[in-house]
Amino acid sequence: MEREEKEPTVAPGLDDALQKKASEEDKKKGNVTRVTRLSWDEVEGE
Fold first, then answer.
1. How many Cβ atoms sit within 10 Å of the Cβ of residue 46?
2. Cα separations (Å) of 34 from 6, 19, 30, 37?
3. For residues 23 and 32, what is the distance between their CA atoms, to the nearest angstrom?
4. What is the pLDDT of residue 11?
5. What is the CA radius of gyration of the chain?
6. How much is the pLDDT for 39?
7. What does the alpha-carbon distance between residue 22 and residue 31 come to, in Å, rounded to a whole number?
8. Model-level pTM greater than 0.70?
9. 10-37: buried (b, 16+ CB within 10 Å) or exposed (e) per residue?
10. Is the dihedral of CA 14, 18, 19, 22 positive or negative?
11. Are 25 and 34 in contact (CB under 8 A)?
């Protein structure tokens, strides 16, 4: 079965779901998603 490529999206408030680890069963089935978090820390006045 081929997967359809989709543009990555995140719904507002979904951060908690992205922190959750995949279960062993999900890992065995390949039902996992790699998550990369980007944080921008800006200091005012510099």
1. 4
2. 14, 11, 11, 10
3. 9
4. 67
5. 16
6. 80
7. 8
8. no
9. eeeeeeeeeeeeeeeeeeeeeeeeeeee
10. positive
11. no
- Give me 31's structure tokens: 């039902």
Pair of tokens at residue 30:
């390949």
* Digit-coded pLDDT (tens) for 6-40: 776 766 666 677 778 889 999 999 988 888 878 88
Tokens for 29, please give them.
């089935």
Nearest residue to 37 via CA among 6, 17, 2, 5: 17
Tokens of 12: 């507002």
